[in-house]
Amino acid sequence: MPHIVVKSYKEFTSPVKSDGYEFLWFAKEFKNAKDTLVAVRFEEHQFLLAIKPKDEHYIIKGDKITRIAPTYILKGALKHFCELADCEILYDNLSSIKPIHVDKAKSFLKEIDYFIEHFPTKKEVWIEIGFGSGRHLLYQAKNNPDIQFIGIEIHKPSIEQLLKQIALQDIHNLLVIDYDARLFLEFVPSNIVGKIFVHFPVPWDKKPHRRVISKKFIQEAERALKPDGVLELRTDSRAYFDYALELFLEREKSKLEVTKNIEPPVSSKYEDRWVRLGKDIYDIRMYALQESPPLELNFDFTFSKISSLERFIKNFDIKPKVFDDYFVHFEKLYMIEDGKFLAEVSFGSFDRPTHLYLILSEGSAQYYPKKPIASQANIKAHKKIEEFLNV
After folding, report:
1. C or N: which end of the chain has fewer Cβ atoms within 10 Å?
2. Is 180 labelled as part of a ligand binding site?
């Protein structure tokens, strides 16, 4: 992850612009926080830099919650911030700032708002979750030009490698997003997806709640798939295979295809490694059996007038609030300026939580850097958050 280690820096007056980057405000530690955050806007992107003290120096890097891709945007923000803040730099790993091939393909990298507002529905959609090196996804996109592909990945080097190949191979039917696939699937329109590929997901044997495959995921996949559409799991983990197969068989009706060590038309570098090591490769394909009802989730996540900000700040409670099928957890509180605060909050579903910030001022609150997606758990959590701000 791009970062800069500095011995010192100077806070500057904001907002200020530098070569397309606008540094909007500083958020300083207030309650349960040990770092300083800096709000940045670049083109349509909004994100935070985090300044973390360590020993006798500071590490400046991208904030995890508002992570930004491609990475060159973050590298540029770090570079320009340090120029403005007169940083005494001890070390950085920025290397080149703007790879030309990634820049050429940046229009194929979309924010979540694009899919919420303009989900591509004119063509059949195929989705690959955790595409890694991108070898399988690129092969499928090139050999199925009439299909709209969506690649979902949170590993930024993998995203940038794929964008580079999109540009080099002149591919036009592939969109990319850096997002939690479990949340993404909840607002994919019903009956438009032909295939969902989940190839070699992280097994998460010690944290099974973090696995991509779950009862909820299978339910959402079946809704998004058109009749006879396929959810395909490919894994080298026998434990993951057994776990997933049990979930598939728990459904009242299931049409499954199970295979072992069947060579695919194209293999990933990970699969090549597992095969060299003599590991078995397992496949489960679940077929959608019927048409699903349309997805109807409309909610704008705006707050009504906030009446108890002073009380909320004074009694800021970091203990998680757990309810039947959702939770709300206020984690950190920062001061932006007098009367204006930034609260870090996680909420929604237990196994696929949403992590965002709230900008709070007298009488108002808004999510930063964007609103949550309209899942049932997020809608319930939002209403509860509003209650807490008005108690």
Report:
1. C
2. yes
Is 178 annotated to bind a ligand? Reply is no
Q: At which of 287, 320, 337 does a domain end?
A: 287
Which residues lie across from 198 on neighbouring strands? 129, 233
pTM: 0.84
Q: How many structural domains are present in the chain?
A: 3
Quick: pLDDT tens for 297-346. 778 899 988 888 999 999 999 999 999 999 999 999 999 987 899 999 99
Q: Are residues 88 and 107 in the same domain?
A: no
Kindly list the strands in the beta sheet with 256-260, ordered across the sheet, starting from the edge strand earlier in the chain: 174-177, 148-152, 125-129, 193-199, 225-235, 282-287, 256-260
Residues 133 and 282 in one domain: yes
Confirm or deny that 128 is annotated as ligand binding.
yes
| 283 appears as a binding residue in the annotation | no
**Does 206 count as an annotated binding residue?**
yes
Domain that includes residue 325, residue range: 309-388
Q: Do residues 47 and 68 touch, judged by C-beta distance below 8 A?
A: yes
- Whether residue 228 lies inside any domain: the answer is yes
Q: What is the mean pLDDT of residues 355-370?
A: 95
Spatial separation of the C-alpha atoms in residues 232 and 248, rounded to whole Å: 12
Residues 13 and 140 in one domain: no
**Total residue count of the chain as it appears in this document:** 391
